[in-house]
Amino acid sequence: MAQKAQPARGMRDVVPPVGEVRRQVANRILDVYTAHGFEVIETPAMEDLDVLVGSQGGDNEKLIFKVLKRGERLDEALARQDELADLGLRFDLTVPLARFVANHYNELPMPFKVAHVAPVWRAERPQKGRYREFSQCDIDIVGEPGVAAEVELCGATLEALEAVGVAGCTVRVNDRRLLRAAVDRWLGPIEGPGPVYIALDKLDKLGPERVAAELSGYDGAGVKALMGWLDSADPTDGPEEVAADLAATLASLSSTGRSVRFDPALVRGMGYYTGQIFEVSHPDVAYSLAGGGRYDGMTARFGAPALPMCGFSIGFERVCDMVDPDRFLRGRHRVAVLCSSQEEQLRCLAEASARRAGDPSATFNVLRRARNARKQADDLALLGYDQVVDGAGFAGPAQP
RNA sequence: GUGGCCGUAGCUCAGUUGGUUAGAGCGCCAGGUUGUGGCCCUGGAGGUCGGGGGUUCAAGUCCCCUCGGUCACCCCA
Known about the structure:
By secondary structure, the chain is α/β, with parallel strands linked by helices.
């Protein structure tokens, strides 16, 4: 029996003309980021498993695709019933970036502004807007402790979304320090507030009763007060420094016409955030298009100084699903040259080379004429060809 | 990880209360016709009916399991 031809679960082939749309969307996002001075880097798809686990990545750590040890090391691990994997596919770009910064600390300019566009993998159950392989468009600022970093990251992210034609986005902003203060105040100092954050994050979806049920281990009056606080809190309901930072971020973004909103119930699942956190929402979809926040000190794990770091990540597939493909496929000059014989095709190939040199932005595509001309014309139209010409007219017979 | 719906050719699907060698359209390959090629005609390749087990004289059809797709939940980009 033939092997099945489908890609692995939750992963997708990219067929034309989607590949062209993706290429242009990625280019425009990167153009915005590099115009802001973010430098492009790359990191490997795989990291040592130790880098990924214990990275405070929240539930994502459970979703790591692990890579088996190889050869003798695998045999030994099997015999000892030891950990069988020593590598894993990255589940985000933030953890690899912290490793990258620690590794290249001495050679990097500080502050360092970095752009990182690459695929990540999570072993989740696939559904709409959620895949097991997807790309993130990250920008991060390393070495800037003030909210200028947050403001620029939010501004650049919204600008990138506008550049690809996704309008009507709103950034929701909150601060982990504000949440921490509220939790401490109503529930008392908690060792690991992670699970409390996760429960509170569901307030808008589940409602107060079910959230209270999830927090049944805590003082009922405190939980109720905490949820009431979330409902009506404003940025000044916390430490002065935090309130000032939030006010600065909100004011700066609003003053440049950005749609920005304080959302006390925004929590996010990652454990590594230390300050402001943000998400980009759009009225047409339930999930967020981008997410990020401040995660100071992550570099310390890798033996480097505890640097201030802040980042924002666009979900590439989610954005591509929202753009109008015609915006990227139309308006190009693409010429298909159809040839009826090999001699004609060879003449046209030479002619096409000359024309490309004269018009680098255009496409000149020399093809054998298909038996079903109607189908061929339809296919070419779908690929964005604005001209289909006959090979005989494109390049005449060679001179004797 | 939990639940609903769905798996028949490359694609879209038909297949009657279980009953002969499982079909159509489109696409693909070849040929005929046509002022080479779009319409039309002929032929061909391509399916262990997602996989496994069970019930039955007989399973694409009924039952169970499993894998995959899809949607929702949890969580996330």
